[in-house]
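lol forgot to send this yesterday, sorry. struct tokens for the thing we talked abt
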């Protein structure tokens, strides 16, 4: 029997030698401790000192553990792998059989510790070695039991694992994981002192028709918030669950493993009863990402969710926009339930389908508990009013935008698909032929879509010089501009850029699945732009059709059409971000120019800036961004400076975005900041505020809680937060205020017009032709509502457009023309 740390080291070294394993760093700490820390492998510092977790990440870990009451000298410390790992091509040089040997030795090692009961499991290797689970990002925060066989007693000993990241991740690689890491480590004390309670859920599954109806009645009658969640299989709704407390719920599953559960009449009656519950204005509905459940039920099952009262994803996003918001993460942050989200797929791999229904109940019950905890945080941090009056107010309108979609000219899309598909195939063949000729190898056919093959072609075979080894458009431009690049490689690079542009347009915007009714739909997300919370993002819907509708290229606009008798109304906020910057940074010249442009209508602020930057009279500054020969004008340069340099962009990036030579870009950069010194003062003010409070608020009351470490890289997005998020929130309020306005066109109780698209600072509505001007008037009024910034009003003017009919009377997105009310 081993009785001391020295005996442990000697016996471990002997066993490792027998397995031909090199030990660079053994174990350390308190042999008699009831708590062990198990990390993954020693780094250079650990290998040098022969002590585990002695470097920066170790100090980071034990700083957190000390706060929990466990200093370094009180715990046993070891690694799964006890040699310094080497990396080849970014991958760990570790064979599976070697890892298995290290795992076996670790389990033997821990079984020799007489008092060990608890293990802080740090990283993937440690998680796998002790619990058999994979994926520390999923399992971090979980508290799991595990056993190790003790050869001396010939019995299994029971232990408890508290799972978290390898400390090098929050300490050096990803500072945004620091907060969850510290939350995980804080659980050690609760587990050891017995205050950590397991989270149990009572699952009601496979209910009869009467049991299901009774449960829905209970949800409606008890006046508690009701959490609901759906699960889907094969693009159909498999079940819907409900819970109005934290530890019990029911899954109403419409199928079992082989057939439908209810008769057709019972099915219909259940759907009607569920619709009544979800439409009740007195029921406070709770959901995790309720946007998805709502648009799915509406489109797939014709069940309309009146309004989700509390969305846990959006509540957490309001509190901590830089953290993950999936339910797995929220479960670990707000409950003691271990990770369970992989349970969803167990039945697909031959498991019991009842595990799927139990999973649904867990989702409902845990979402209910998470909502309670997040609600308390919102109230305590003074964000509840903003959350309910703004964040949740927009959600039903986004659901409607998803379900409404936008009609596609199917014939035109089919023609574009055929013609462009053939063009893309031709461009690819031409590229491959030319590359083959350059290499003097008739069998060489490099794939232009393969990044590794393009790197090999450009940098190994052709020896081209760029910045690093990227094959993006910017680096290809650098390669073209390099004096050592000959005419044929230049032509090949241009061919590749041309092919990639056409291929992206084809695959992303043309060859996209649309729904059977010839509409394209996308999911509108309130949480998709991490650095600018408040802005919307979009993606394909969960049944696989559609795409991002915010970044459609102009050449695709013709495919999007309005229904017969309807047209498009469009508004765009004029120079919105720059105006907010002018007010936030208190730049008097800009404020005067922007107000003059707003009031007079004909004054061009970009020409005014170019006039000041380049010493040219205003009237002599070109009115366009490019000359007749396609070269950029000083107006374009000034505009790009205003769009980029406000947020700490450097002059090399300015050169890339404008196409200016590096010397001219540097001159423009210096001139811009010389005539606008207020920007640097504003940056310094924002930085002081962030370092002092770790938070920023925009003019709508949205908060950016800073959980990453402040650096030059992070400050660029931090400085941009107030302008970018304010405009995002401003556009969102236009959507809900306009569609809730009494003047908005209605047909009975149904809206006759609807907002269909958000294109960043712009919105497009679809309305009856006779009502487009009414819609535009309402939207403009709400778009031009003043923002209060630094105690002053800012009014951002909205430019309006209306679609015009083609020869067949069809209104297309491409036919928008400026109009004046």
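and heres what i got for the seq, position by position
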């Amino acid at each position: 029997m081993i009785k001391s740390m020295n005996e442990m080291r000697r016996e471990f070294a002997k066993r490792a030698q027998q397995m031909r394993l090199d030990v660079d760093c053994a174990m350390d700490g308190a042999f008699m401790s009831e708590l062990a820390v198990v990390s993954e492998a020693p780094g250079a510092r650990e290998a040098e000192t022969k002590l585990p977790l002695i470097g920066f990440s170790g100090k980071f870990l034990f700083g957190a553990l000390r706060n929990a009451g466990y200093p370094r000298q009180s715990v046993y410390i070891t690694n799964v792998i006890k040699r310094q790992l080497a990396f080849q091509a970014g991958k760990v040089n570790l064979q599976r059989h070697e890892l298995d040997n290290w795992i076996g030795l670790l389990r033997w090692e821990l079984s020799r510790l007489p008092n060990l009961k608890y293990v802080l499991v740090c990283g993937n290797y440690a998680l796998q070695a002790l619990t058999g689970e994979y994926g520390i990002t999923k399992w971090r925060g979980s508290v799991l039991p595990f056993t190790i066989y003790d050869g001396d007693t010939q019995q299994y000993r029971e232990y408890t694992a508290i799972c978290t990241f390898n400390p090098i991740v929050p300490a050096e690689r990803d500072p945004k994981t620091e907060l969850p890491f510290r939350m995980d480590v804080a659980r050690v004390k609760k587990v050891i002192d017995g205050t950590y309670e397991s989270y149990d859920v009572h699952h009601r599954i496979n209910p009869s028709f009467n049991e299901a109806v009774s449960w829905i009645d209970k949800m409606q009658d008890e006046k508690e918030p009701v959490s609901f969640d759906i699960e889907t299989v094969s693009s159909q709704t498999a079940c819907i669950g409900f819970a109005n407390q934290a530890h019990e719920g029911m899954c109403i599953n419409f199928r079992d493993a082989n057939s439908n559960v209810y008769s057709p009449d019972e099915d219909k009656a259940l759907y009607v009863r569920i619709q009544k519950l979800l439409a009740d204005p007195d029921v406070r509905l709770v959901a995790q990402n309720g946007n998805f459940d709502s648009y799915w039920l509406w489109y797939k099952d014709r069940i309309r969710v009146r309004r989700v009262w509390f969305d846990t994803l959006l509540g957490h996003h309001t509190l901590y926009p830089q953290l993950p918001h999936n339910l797995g993460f929220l479960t670990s942050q707000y409950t003691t339930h271990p990770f369970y989200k992989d349970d969803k797929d167990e039945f697909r791999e031959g498991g019991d389908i009842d595990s799927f229904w139990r999973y649904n109940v867990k989702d409902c019950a845990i979402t209910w508990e998470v909502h309670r905890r997040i609600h308390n945080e919102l109230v305590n941090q003074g964000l509840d009013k903003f959350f309910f009056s703004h964040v949740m107010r927009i959600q039903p309108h986004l659901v409607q935008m998803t379900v409404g979609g936008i009609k596609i000219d199917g014939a035109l899309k089919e023609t574009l698909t055929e013609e462009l598909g053939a063009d893309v195939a031709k461009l690819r063949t031409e590229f491959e032929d030319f590359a083959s000729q350059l290499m003097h190898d008739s069998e060489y056919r490099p794939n232009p879509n393969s990044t590794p093959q393009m790197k090999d072609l450009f940098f190994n075979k052709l020896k081209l010089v760029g910045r690093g080894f990227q094959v993006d458009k910017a680096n290809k431009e650098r390669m073209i501009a390099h004096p050592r690049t000959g005419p044929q490689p230049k032509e090949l690079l241009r061919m590749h850029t041309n092919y990639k542009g056409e291929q992206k347009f084809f695959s992303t915007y043309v060859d996209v699945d649309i729904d059977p009714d010839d509409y394209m739909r996308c999911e509108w997300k309130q949480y998709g732009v991490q650095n600018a919370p408040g802005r919307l993002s979009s993606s394909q819907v969960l049944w696989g059709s559609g795409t991002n509708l915010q970044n459609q290229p102009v050449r695709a606009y013709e495919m999007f059409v309005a229904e017969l008798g309807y047209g498009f109304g469009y508004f765009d906020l004029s120079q919105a971000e720059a105006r907010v910057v002018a007010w936030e940074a208190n730049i008097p010249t800009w404020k005067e120019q922007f107000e003059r442009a707003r009031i007079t209508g004909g004054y061009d602020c970009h020409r005014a800036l170019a006039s000041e930057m380049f010493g040219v009279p205003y009237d002599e500054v070109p009115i366009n961004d490019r000359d007749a020969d396609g070269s950029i004008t000083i107006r374009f340069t000034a505009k790009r400076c205003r769009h980029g340099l406000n947020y700490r962009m450097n002059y090399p990036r300015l050169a890339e975005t404008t196409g200016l030579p590096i010397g001219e870009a540097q001159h423009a950069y210096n001139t811009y900041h010389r005539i606008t010194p207020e920007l640097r003062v504003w940056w310094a003010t924002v930085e002081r505020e962030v370092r002092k409070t770790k938070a920023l608020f925009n003019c709508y009351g949205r908060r950016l809680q800073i959980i990453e470490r402040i650096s030059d890289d992070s400050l660029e997005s931090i400085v941009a937060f107030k302008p970018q998020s304010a405009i995002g929130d401003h556009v969102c309020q236009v959507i809900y205020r306009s569609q809730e306005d009494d003047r908005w066109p209605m047909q009975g109780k149904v809206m006759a017009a609807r907002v269909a698209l958000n294109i960043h600072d712009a919105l497009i509505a679809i309305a009856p032709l006779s009502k487009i001007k009414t819609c535009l008037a309402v939207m403009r009024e709400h778009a031009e509502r003043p923002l209060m910034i630094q105690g002053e009003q800012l009014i951002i003017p909205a430019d309006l457009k209306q679609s015009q009919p083609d020869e067949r009377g069809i209104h297309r997105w491409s036919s928008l023309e400026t109009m004046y009310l």
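Residues 255 and 261 are 5 Å apart (CA to CA). anyway ping me if u want another try
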